[in-house]
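Re: the 464-residue chain
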Amino acid sequence: MEQETRSRAVNRVYGISLAANLVMLTLKLTVGFLTGSLVMLADGVDSSLDAIANIIAMLVTRVAGNPPDADHPYGHRRYETLAAMLVGGFLLITASEIVKSGVSRLISGTVPDLTLANFAVMALAFAVNFALFFLQRGAGRRLKSEVLIASSEDKRSDIMVSITVLVSLVTVQLGYGWIDAAAALVVVALISRNALNIIKHAADVLVDRAALDAQTVSQIVEEIPSVKYVSQVRSRGSEDDVHVDLVVSVPAPTPIEQTAAITDEIINRLRTHFEGLSEIEVTFQPAYDLPPDFTQIARTEAAALGISAHEISAVRIGDGLILDVHVEVNANQKLETAHEIVSRFEDRLRQAIPTLTEIVTHIEPYYDPEDCVALEGEEELAQQVMHIVTNLYPDNYWHNLNLRASPGCGGYTLSIHCQTEGSVTVAEAHELAEAVETRLRSDLPEIHRITIHTEPWERVPSAA
């Protein structure tokens, strides 16, 4: 929900609460003053402070709904937390005033002169407080508003206060005049308890107490294969405005484009597990204490020269290492230029991997996707492809055949999907793809680049 919409919804609830509190405080103070009932005057003061708290909350919520700006880069939600703390402070002020009056009344022995109006007003107060409690609590949970939930806690105490006042009025009417002052002190205890709870919750947010369990966050993030471990987790904010800072360790040669993809995955997983995340900041640091990832190192060094590397295999022989790498360079480059670039790539690898004793590179042409367009009317070639693959592996489901080419590519590029049993190993699936690719290159030499995507069964072949 957008902050502006949320703020309007919160303020609508406070508008209703303010109107009800103004009516009730007028009735309580008037009847309490006329009859001399201290407990009703105390309850009236509580209602007046409720009204003041409503006004403050409405003003602050409007400010809290503003988007982040240069002076408040994290937004304005702390104003709402501050408003919740002020509500708690007003409740404590109420409690202190009632204590003074209650002690004084007990010492003097003054007895109130009750009428039917006292009972009628307090019965109405009970009904109003009951309705406002459910209104504020329901809206607070739906809108995830700290200040509304804090106000609903105040209404919970108001319900108990209304019951206490009604009971005290009955006992006073039966001749126990001191109950009026004693009941006022009970009201103090109820108000003080809720005030301290509200202040504690607001203080936790203002002092940046951890909003999420760091161990749980680490476990979620460390499930991502590219993440080796999480060094630090920091979180703060209210339940619907949580900010998270992470320090994540990844293999030392991880390039920036891969860290960007890892960041996206971290954000997606955390938002799936937790609600109310406003911002997630991820800082990466190299994990030098891990065994070297030769595949990642080769790809990183290739990317530094503007080329790409794939089908990387490393074999240890004694204390040395042999690396086989397929390298893609611009298809239009001259061989001598391409060889010079690949030689620089090999030099960088020797510096990055001191134990490297031999490098075997296979240069492949790279065709710019902008130069390759989807073909129309090449049905005959597509049919030949399907004929070959279905004859080789008739039990598999071959689909999503795509042919692309342009004069600049000097031939065709093919991609095709193959569904097979999900129980086969990755190595077995790769062997299948390699066999098909070899056959296609032999029978259809005009196809220069072949990509075969193997996947587990999603539907039976007869549905094709």
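Residues 3-35 form the longest helix (33 residues).
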